[in-house]
Write a structure and sequence with these properties.
The protein is an alpha+beta fold and 136 residues long. It has one domain. 55% of the residues lie in helices and 14% in strands. The strands form 2 sheets. The chain has a two-stranded antiparallel sheet with strand order 1-2. It has a two-stranded antiparallel ribbon with strand order 3-4. Strand 1 and strand 2 form a beta hairpin. The longest helix is centred in the last third of the chain and has 32 residues. The protein starts with 10 loop residues before the first strand and ends with a helix.
Length: 136
């Protein structure tokens, strides 16, 4: 049978929480669709609001719902259920020095993605230029 093989550059990325390796997730840092989905996540997450309440049960239920929504957004962005590996039993909006776990994760992922995209763009431009230079 004929076969088409595609390499996406998917990498294993180690997740370290509080200095302890807790697992790995997998994604292709050069995947432009991932960048688009991450931008969607940031946009949607910025509109999530915690409504003030004096009832502890209401506050806990609301926190749980927000955490589940944020985990769903991460799973959507990376196209598979990876949020449990990333956040474990901690809440996605738990903060350290004012920076949420979600933001720490997104910043870490973008730090891996951006150099790869730059490298891939340069490599692609070099390959394309050998075909397009004769038309300049």
């Amino acid at each position: 049978m004929a076969q088409i093989s595609i390499s996406t550059g998917k990498e294993e990325i180690e997740i370290v929480r509080d200095g302890e390796k807790v697992g790995c997730i997998y994604f292709a840092p050069g995947d432009a669709a991932l960048i688009s989905r991450l931008q969607e996540v940031r946009e949607k997450a910025s509109h999530i609001e915690f409504k003030e309440t004096e009832e502890i049960d209401d506050a806990l239920a609301q926190a749980d719902a927000i955490d589940n929504e944020l985990r769903g957004l991460i799973d959507y962005a990376f196209d598979y259920p990876c949020s449990d590996i990333v956040f474990g039993n901690s809440c996605t909006f738990t903060t350290e020095n004012g920076v949420s776990a979600l933001e720490q994760f997104l910043n870490g992922a973008l730090a891996i993605i951006e150099p790869t995209l730059e490298k891939e763009a340069k490599a692609s431009q070099k390959r394309m230029s050998k075909y397009t230079n004769k038309y300049k």
